[in-house]
Each structure stands twice: as structure tokens, then as C-alpha cells.
């Protein structure tokens, strides 16, 4: 039967969902060679066998739990465009609450989901068009929140990439300069950190106390590093 022949592809999508992947991974944007490979191998031996030799299937379904109407939140990939727009403020709020509770990784995941919803919608718009720009302006604060989480998780190079991406489009974004400055300082890019903090002051002089604190912290770390290097090198040359 036709539905049995198609089942291996359906099963692969379900397995992708269970693994947290895009259900259509490997089924789009493929060249002819990739599609040919996809036809003969789905990446799972049991599904490959079923595809080669279709046979009647019996499904045994077990109900694990029942959720009240409205309590289930769909994954972004399963939402309609309208559902994505409606979900973003709610996901953003959940991320903020998790961050306040100190659950930084979980908050980052929420911000990422909200960004994914908006990015999906943005891909359907002409770059630079009013609708594209409106979506991008919604993405930017979420991305800055995501970067704040990544700073606390010490994933500094990801912060550098995202903040630079923001500043390539919005040259006066103070938060992006500040977060990028902190990331530069953390990975010992001293000149770059000082330049970013100087830009923060140029855009908003009232932030001088905050910037001065960051610069003092960087200078203190540099002095500690120099002292450690002297001890280390002294030990090498004295041998």
C-alpha cells in the first residue's frame, strides 16, 4: 500500500524530531546526487530495509500523558506564520523569567527558539524591505539577550560573532558594543575591548561608571597575568 511505502520517510522525520533536529533535514535543498543517496539510504538500517521491502505494519500506540487544551507549546518548526508571531512574545517572556531565576542555559534556549521563529518569517521577505527590517528589529533584542546568556556561560566567541553581526547593521547599538567589549576583554583582545568601551562612552557618556568598572577589571586581570607570566618565564630561564 502507498502509505506503507511512505512510512520510512515519515519515521525518519519523527526520529529527527525526537533528536531535536529539523524534521525535514536531508529532504530539501539537495542536489540530484544527494537526493539519489537519500532514496537508497535514510540513515537507519531498519528503515532502509522497510523501504526496499514494504510490508503491512501494525502500530502499537501508548498514551504517555494528556495535556489540557492550550497548555501544549508547539515547536517553532510546526507553527504557522501567525502562530510564530503570536508565540514570540510569550517565549521571550519565558526566557526573561528563566534568566531571573538564574537558569541561564534554559533562558538561552528560549531566546533561541524565539529568534528561530522570527528568522523563519524573515527568510520569506525581501532583504532590506520594510517587513524584513521590522522583523530584524524584533530579532535584535532577543539576540542581545541570547548573547548575555552566552557571556555568563563563557562562550565568548559566539558573543563576538553575534554582536559584530548586529553592529554591521546597527552602528549605534550600545548594548552590542558593551557585550562585545566584555567578550573581547575575556579573551584578551585588549585593544578591541578598549575600542568597544570607548564607543559605548561616545554614544552614552552617562555609562562612564559602568565602563570604568569594566576597564578597571580588565587592567587588574592584565596585571595578574603579567605577574603570572614573570613567574612562569623565570622558572623556565632558571632551569
Automatic annotation (TrEMBL):
One of its GO terms (cellular component) is cytoplasm. The keyword Disulfide bond does not apply. It comes from the Eukaryota. TPR repeats lie at residues 174-207. SUPFAM superfamilies: TPR-like. It is found in: Cytoplasm. Coiled coil: none annotated. The keyword Ion transport does not apply. Its main location: cytoplasm. GO terms for molecular function: peptidyl-prolyl cis-trans isomerase activity. Keywords: Cytoplasm, Phosphoprotein, Repeat, TPR repeat. Residues 1-63 form the AIP/AIPL N-terminal FKBP-type PPIase domain. Interacts with RET in the pituitary gland; this interaction prevents the formation of the AIP-survivin complex. May play a positive role in AHR-mediated (aromatic hydrocarbon receptor) signaling, possibly by influencing its receptivity for ligand and/or its nuclear targeting. This is AH receptor-interacting protein. It comes from Fregetta grallaria (White-bellied storm-petrel).
Amino acid at each position: 500500500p502507498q502509505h506503507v511505502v511512505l512510512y520510512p520517510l515519515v519515521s525518519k522525520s519523527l526520529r529527527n524530531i525526537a533528536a531535536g533536529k529539523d524534521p525535514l533535514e536531508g529532504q530539501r535543498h539537495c542536489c540530484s546526487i544527494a537526493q539519489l543517496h537519500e532514496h537508497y539510504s535514510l540513515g537507519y538500517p531498519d528503515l532502509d530495509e522497510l523501504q526496499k521491502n514494504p510490508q503491512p505494519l501494525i502500530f502499537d500506540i501508548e498514551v504517555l500523558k494528556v495535556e489540557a487544551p492550550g497548555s501544549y507549546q508547539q515547536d517553532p518548526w510546526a507553527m504557522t506564520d501567525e502562530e510564530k508571531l503570536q508565540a514570540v512574545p510569550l517565549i521571550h517572556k519565558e526566557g526573561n523569567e528563566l534568566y531571573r531565576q538564574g537558569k541561564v542555559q534554559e533562558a538561552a534556549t528560549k531566546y533561541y527558539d524565539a529568534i528561530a521563529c522570527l528568522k523563519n518569517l524573515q527568510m520569506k521577505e525581501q532583504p532590506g524591505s520594510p517587513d524584513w527590517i521590522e522583523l530584524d528589529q524584533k530579532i535584535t533584542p532577543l539576540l542581545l539577550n541570547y548573547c548575555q546568556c552566552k557571556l555568563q556561560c563563557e562562550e565568548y566567541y559566539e558573543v563576538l560573532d553575534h554582536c559584530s553581526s548586529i553592529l554591521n547593521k546597527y552602528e549605534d547599538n550600545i548594548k552590542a558594543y558593551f557585550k562585545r567589549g566584555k567578550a573581547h576583554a575575556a579573551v584578551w583582545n585588549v585593544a578591541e575591548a578598549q575600542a568597544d568601551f570607548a564607543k559605548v562612552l561616545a554614544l552614552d557618556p552617562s555609562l562612564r561608571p559602568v565602563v570604568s568598572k569594566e576597564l578597571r577589571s580588565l587592567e587588574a586581570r592584565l596585571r595578574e597575568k603579567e605577574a603570572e607570566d614573570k613567574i612562569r618565564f623565570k622558572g623556565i630561564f632558571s632551569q
